[in-house]
Amino acid sequence: MGCVMRLIPMGGKNMTQKPILSIADMSIVFSSPDEADIEAVRQVDLTLTPGKTLALVGESGCGKSVTARAVLRLLDKNALIQRGSITFEPKGEKPVDIAKLKQDSLPLRAIRGNQISMIFQEPMSSLSPVHTIGDQIDEMMTIHEGLKPKQARERTVALLDQVGIPGARERADAYPFQLSGGLRQRAMIAMALACKPQVLIADEPTTALDVTTQAQILDLLRQLQADFGMAMLFITHDLGVVAEIADEVAVMYLGDVVEQGSVFDVFAAPKHPYTQALMSSIPKMARKADRVRLSPIKGTVPAPKDRPEGCAFTSRCPHAFEPCPTIRPARTDLGNGHHARCHLLTRVPVEEPA
Amino acid sequence: MSTLLSVQNLSKHYTLSGGLFGAERRLDALTDINLEVEAGETLAIVGESGCGKTTLGRCIIQAQPSSAGKVVYHPKSGGDVELTALNKRQIKPWRQDIRMIFQDPMSSLNPNMRVFDIVAEPLRIHKICKGRELEDRVIGTLAKVGIPAEAVGRYPHAFSGGQRQRIGIARALVLDPKLVIADEAVSALDVSIQAQVLNLLEDLKAEFGLTYIFISHDLGVVNYIADRVVAMYLGHVVENAPTEMLFERPRHPYTELLLEALPIADPTRRKGRKAEVRGEIPYLGNRPVGCPFHTRCRYAQDVCRAEKPALRPINGTAQEAACHFAEELDLKGAYDDAPAREFA
Amino acid sequence: MAVETMTDIPVSTPIKRAKRESQTALMWRRFKRHRLALVSLWIVALFYLIAILAEFLAPHDPGAYSARYTYAPPQGLQLFSTDENGGWRFFPHVNGYSTEVDREAMRRIFVVDPEIEIPVQFLAPSDPYLLAGVIPMSVKLIGVTEARAPFYILGADRLGRDLLSRLIHGTRISLSIGLAGVTLSLFFGIIIGGFAGYYGGWFDSAVMRVIEFIRSMPTIPLWLGLAAAMPKDWSALQTYFAITIILSLIGWTELARVVRGRFLSLRTEDFVTAAQLDGASDWRIITRHMVPSFMSHIIAAATLAIPGMILAETALSFLGLGLQAPIVSWGTLLQDAQNIRTLASAPWLLAPGVCVVIIILSMNFFGDGLRDAADPHGR
Fold first, then answer.
1. From the CA of C293, how many Å to the nearest CA of chain A?
2. Structural domain contains residue B287
3. Is B204 inside a domain boundary?
4. Closest approach of B92 to chain A, Cα-based (Å)
5. Among residues B327, C43, C185, C373, which one has the fewest Cβ atoms lying within 10 Å of its Cβ?
6. CA nearest A317: which of A293, A297, A347, A344?
7. What is the pLDDT of residues B157-190, one digit of tens each?
8. Residues of C in contact with B154 (CB under 8 A)
9. Within this chain, do residues B83 and B216 fall inside the same structural domain, yes or no?
10. Is B192 part of any domain?
11. Considering B176, B202, B221, which residue would you say is the last residue of a domain?
12. Secondary structure of C143-200 in the HEC alphabet?
């Protein structure tokens, strides 16, 4: 299967665009010989739309990376997608349920790196140290699209230029270790875009970078999204980065998506106590006079095996009441695609959620 | 306020051997650093990775020898102690006064020692107390940082990252120090835990009258916790100013760049295209002539490429910057007109 | 990576036993998962037990010869015998020999004769001896009741000496020489490698060059030379120690490298810097903070070095350059198995070779298991 060559028209203004990837009711279970099974991701619903960025945000261990890896089926052998579906519906093609595809089957490999590609936190782990970056990108094109080496190199140089690598023609002959961290990250992005994917998964791509380089990479990703019109799933722990790049945001806590919606709605009026607490945990950029003491979330994230039956946040939530430890809150629709899982939202409205 | 510590013309360079027959090369990590730390303040040192902020911290605490210059400590008892001139034995008593908190909560605690012994180690080395008294002091300090007494018999791997960082803080505080150097002490922690540790550091400062040197790359955190900020670039101090002045109106283009690049957790204040944030930190080995920042500076003139600007007070204020055009440039700060929103 | 790092434990939750363990306990738990290594550990322990209890376990003195029974084949040990009625009874015994003459070779050969039953006694009284050179005893695990009866469970050698007894005493020499060699290597390795790794600089470079020089020399000729330089009139004990030293002359280099490497990587660890900033002395840092952190690695490396030592001793002795005749080691025993004709008529003389293979394999598996368990990334 070749790369899909046509560009998807920019979907920025079109609000009713069809989703290209929908994760529905997905649960992922890890099994280990010594301990009980752990449901690392439980009943997650996410949708990606062409030209839009969905940020998946949460603290370490919340399952955000596991969710992203599941889309490309890059999970370890002891992880099982126990329920739910991952429907990939490229333009003009039949929908495929990635969750049902066989590991390392031909259809899966045709999607991986071609229609859906991924960039990582550490570029050195996905670039081969013994080949030049040009050769590595050429290879993607010759394999997936059957281009001749000459043509491939032309495209590679154009692509490197597009991701902002200065002196692209010469740099194509550089080995990854000869590049700085920012340039390596750009080279990896170029490689991920070699086949014009329709979905790009970015797993903490800026976490290891300096703020200045991070700003450049975020800019680049935004620019490329405008050019290529791909959908992006952006994983991060940094709410600042989310605010910069995302159209929609999903907040994860201990395997649950506790709140999701448009980035403006969620940041303006977070409905889940965890989202609220997360937001008041980051220092505001304010003058000394307006300075408020941080109000952190009490305690630490419990181990997955100690997760309460009901809402995972119960043990740290300042508003927890009777149903929280035992009954799992339902996904409540708050309008305009804003959802949250919290009992406070369905409680007979005596008092507002603080 | 009195000066607690002064750094005078401190330089540090490494010599890279060029292999068996290659020529030796010099790598300047710190060039002619001057700064004073006032008793009771929180001084932040900021900059991109490789700017020398960690090296500076390590040279101040004498974890690394410096190549030139002095670090002078002014204890309450009076007198000046030139730390850089002392040998290992002479410096030992002063190690009680100046302590360090490390970035990585995993590698900074000895995995083979119980938490109790980790925190007791400095007391034992300095032969301050033993037996019952030692026990009380260790457990008391751990309680202050929020580690309960029943957990002191455990090994570090039984704790979460945030708890390990608390143990590291307890180790620093158990000697009743005056100055604590925190090297990226909250960078490796999740936001909710980071907030806990920041609050803890503040409370401890108030309780024990501590002075902090807070080394960080996160300007959001720095704005929150610091009284004064030192911005470093390629081993130089480029700006040194009270926090609010620096964030209100930076006087060095590099500081402006850092503030510009800082993501703000508010989509309504999204900065959009940051064409100005360009270039990357050059390799330390081939440092530019003239102003170290001129290769990335959008305001650079010919004089910047030829002449190195000195750090000087701007318009007679407490704000110091090393830029030829510090007075003329109208640089953008980080406090936007948008009001801080409340999530109550 | 299984689940993302989910190590957070709130202080309030009861901490499981597993979480309280020390590093050593953690290592042991990981080691136990390694089946083969665990079995090997038992085999190695068994061999060392045999070495310690050699005098008690060996039915004969290893030097006691009997011209009457040269190349007597293995008798095997039987615990039961059939009586006239075809019933079984407990009667530990060995079978005697009958003599035949091989017409072609014109020599006497022994055949195990099932008709002759020589009773065998457990915990049989014997001449007084000192167990491991200290405990006076006068009882052996096993012995024949009639003093003059032949008793060769594993057969006899050219001089009619009991192979089993010699094998058991050889185990003591061969295993102890491995252990002594490694201990000596470890001593030099830790001191030299430790200094090189902790202080670095010119001393480190010099040590590394010396190590490279030593390791670049072919070992067999080196050993040959050193062994040939040993005065012939040295006593057995002197030769034993000389061989140990020769073996560790090479052996220390590998261990010194491991130690140096660990020191180098630990020196930059934050907890070592923290100890320095606590004002700890170098000695305290090394003994309290650094050595405990890599002791497990060193033990693993040392375990993996023992088989090399044993093999080297065996090889040297087999070539006639190591331990000499009155001392019994697996190597000197194998010297008897050098010629093919002897092997054809007395294949049981290869038994020491089997022991070598078993112990080398076990030590290697055991060492691998230890190494994997000591490696924190293997978790």
1. 26
2. yes
3. no
4. 36
5. B327
6. A297
7. 888 888 899 999 999 999 999 999 999 988 888 8
8. 15, 19-20
9. yes
10. no
11. B176
12. EECCCCCCCCCCCECCCCCEHHHHHHHHHHHHHHHHHHHHHHHHHHHHHHHHHHHHHC
User: For residue C125, how many C-alpha atoms fall within 13 Å in the half-sphere facing its CB?
Assistant: 1
CB pairs under 8 A between A and B: 145
- Please compute the mean of the pLDDT values over residues C28-47 and round it to a whole number: 86
In-domain check, residue B230: yes
Contacts of A216 in chain B (CB under 8 A): 274, 277-278
Predicted pLDDT at B181: 95
Residue B268 clears pLDDT 70, i.e. is over it: yes
Residue B126, phi-psi category: left (phi > 0), alpha (psi -120 to 50), beta (remainder) = alpha
Give the Cβ contact number of residue C324 at 10 Å: 18
CB nearest to A211's CB, from B225, B262, B266: B262
* One-letter amino acid for residue A329 of the chain: P
Q: What is the pLDDT of residue B262?
A: 87
Kindly state whether A62 is in contact with chain B, defined as any CB-CB distance less than 8 angstroms: no
- Kindly identify which residue of chain B lies nearest to residue A182, measuring between CA atoms: B280
Domain of residue B15, CATH code: 3.40.50.300
Q: Is C90's pLDDT higher than 60?
A: yes
Distance from CA of C33 to the nearest CA of A (A): 11
Q: How many domains does chain B have?
A: 2
pLDDT in tens, B211-224: 999 999 999 999 99
* Cβ neighbours of residue C54 closer than 8 Å, sequence gap 6 or more: C132, C168, C169, C171, C172
Other CB atoms within a 10 A radius of the CB of residue B64 amount to 18
Which chain C residues are closer than 8 Å to B109 by Cβ?
271
Q: Do B326 and B224 share a structural domain?
A: yes
- What is the per-residue pLDDT across B293-322, written as a single tens digit (0 to 9) for each? 988 888 989 999 899 999 999 988 999 999
Question: Per-10-residue mean pLDDT for chain A, 354 residues long?
Answer: 41 61 92 81 92 92 89 87 90 86 84 86 81 89 84 90 83 85 86 88 87 86 89 93 93 93 93 92 85 85 84 90 89 90 79 51
Q: Are residues B115 and B55 in the same domain?
A: no
Pairing status of strand A256-262 against strand A339-341: antiparallel
Which residues fall within 8 angstroms of residue A163, CB to CB, at 6 or more apart?
Answer: A186, A187, A189, A190, A193, A220, A224
pLDDT tens digits, one per residue of B9-38: 999 988 776 555 666 777 888 989 999 999
Question: What is the reported pLDDT for A353?
Answer: 52
Q: Phi/psi at B21 (nearest 5 deg)?
A: -115, -5
Residues in CB range of C354: below 8 A, 6 or more apart: none
Share of chain C above pLDDT 90, in %: 2
Chains contacting C (3+ CB pairs below 8 angstroms) = A, B
Supply the range of the domain harboring residue B30.
1-96+181-186+210-334
User: Does one domain contain both B220 and B170?
Assistant: no
Domains annotated on chain C, with CATH: 39-52+167-378 (1.10.3720.10), 66-160 (no CATH)
- Count of pairs with CB atoms under 8 A, one residue in A, one in C: 45
- What mean pLDDT comes out for the span C69-81? 75
Which chain C residues have a beta carbon less than 8 Å from that of A30? 2-3
Residues B238, B107, single domain; the answer is: no
Return the number of other C-beta atoms located less than 10 Å from residue C237's C-beta: 9
| Residues B44 and B135 grouped into a single domain | no
Chain-centroid distance of CA B342 in Å reads 30
Residues B216 and B314 in one domain: yes
CA C304 to chain centre: 11
CB of A237 within 8 Å of a chain B CB? The answer is: yes
- Do B88 and B215 belong together in one domain? yes
By Cβ distance, the residue of C7, C8, C23 closest to B111 is C23
Please list every residue in chain C whose beta carbon sits closer than 8 Å to the beta carbon of residue A66.
3-4
- Which residues does chain A have within 8 Å of residue B281's beta carbon, measured at their own beta carbons? 210
Neighbours of chain A (3+ CB pairs under 8 A): B, C
Of C190, C301, C310, the C-alpha closest to C247 is C310
